[in-house]
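Q: I'm building a small set of examples for a reading group on sequence design. Run inverse folding on the following structure and report the sequence directly after it, with nothing in between.
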């Protein structure tokens, strides 16, 4: 019998996840299909009951349900518990277990795409929203030397650093961070600044950027933000948000099937779809 997987969110229509997962199922000869499930915020508990009752093998969870699903699961892993958000549910013979692959997916994409070890690196994270949270806690599990944070609302960066409870992090205002840019090996934009349609905006001035720094932006629409273009022109090595999107999906796929999909093919499909 074909296994059913899917995405719970509201809205879900524009998701690229079916494209990645259904292609990987076919290529690996796995009899399964990934569907989109538009779930109204008032019906999250019914949706999770539906996953159980229908024997749906696994789901991804997206905005706005990543926190709301937690009370209805049987267990969640330590990382998902720490960040308080689930993006992947595995149905293990009726036992629903929640995970979060967003941050781990980002870190794996960073290491693999940029061919870099994070050991001893000094990292600046820009932004303190939902995306930053998963990435920050995943970075804390690496051997990076510093993982500093900056955000427009500096109190949110402060709060996250406090929660991290790790002596490797400090928080700064955007202006302070701009003045210290030359102290970092890697900087990561997790804000929505520069995302379509406001493509002219930039999260942080790159005046003090050192050539050779890795500059990463989790935005994938546009594929290259104005900030990344400028970083490239200043001699940085740049990465866009497609890697995070693909690797969070690949890690979910692996949890469901035990198999690692062809991430390069997933990336190619996503980029083609985004270009259309
Ligand atoms: P979020 O929780 O709403 O957080 C938004 C962040 O952006 C906050 O730090 C916010 O600062 C900052 N921000 C927003 N407008 C700003 C402005 N005009 N000036 C300065 N800072 C501003 O959003 P999110 O879920 O983290 O998503 C952020 C971005 O990441 C989006 O573009 C999203 O598409 C992208 N994303 C990509 C992936 C991927 O797979 N590649 C995954 C998740 C998210 P304040 O705290 O001061 O408001």
């Amino acid at each position: 019998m074909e296994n059913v997987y899917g995405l719970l969110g509201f809205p879900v229509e524009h998701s690229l996840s079916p494209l990645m997962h259904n292609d990987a199922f076919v290529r690996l000869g796995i009899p399964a299909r990934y569907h989109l499930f538009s779930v109204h915020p008032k019906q999250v508990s019914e949706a999770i009951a539906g996953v159980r009752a229908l024997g749906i093998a696994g789901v991804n969870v997206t905005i706005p349900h990543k926190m709301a699903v937690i009370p209805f699961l049987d267990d969640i892993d330590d990382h998902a518990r720490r960040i308080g958000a689930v993006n992947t549910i595995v149905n293990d013979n009726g036992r629903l277990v929640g995970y979060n692959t967003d941050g781990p997916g980002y870190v794996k994409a960073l290491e693999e795409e940029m061919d870099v070890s994070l050991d001893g690196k000094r990292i600046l994270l820009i932004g303190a929203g939902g995306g930053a949270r998963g990435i920050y806690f995943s970075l804390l599990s690496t051997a990076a030397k510093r993982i500093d944070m900056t955000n427009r609302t500096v109190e949110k960066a402060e709060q996250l650093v406090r929660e991290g409870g790790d002596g490797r992090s400090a928080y700064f205002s955007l202006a302070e961070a701009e003045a210290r840019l030359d102290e970092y090996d890697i900087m990561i934009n997790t804000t929505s600044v520069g995302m379509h349609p406001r493509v002219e905006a930039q999260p942080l001035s790159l005046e003090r950027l050192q050539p050779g720094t890795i500059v990463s932006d989790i935005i994938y629409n546009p594929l290259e933000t104005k900030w990344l273009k400028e970083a490239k022109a200043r001699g940085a090595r740049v990465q866009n948000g497609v890697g995070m999107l693909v690797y969070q999906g690949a890690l979910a796929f692996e949890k469901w099937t035990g198999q690692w999909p062809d991430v390069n093919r997933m990336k190619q499909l996503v980029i083609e779809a985004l270009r259309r």
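The longest helix spans residues 242-257.
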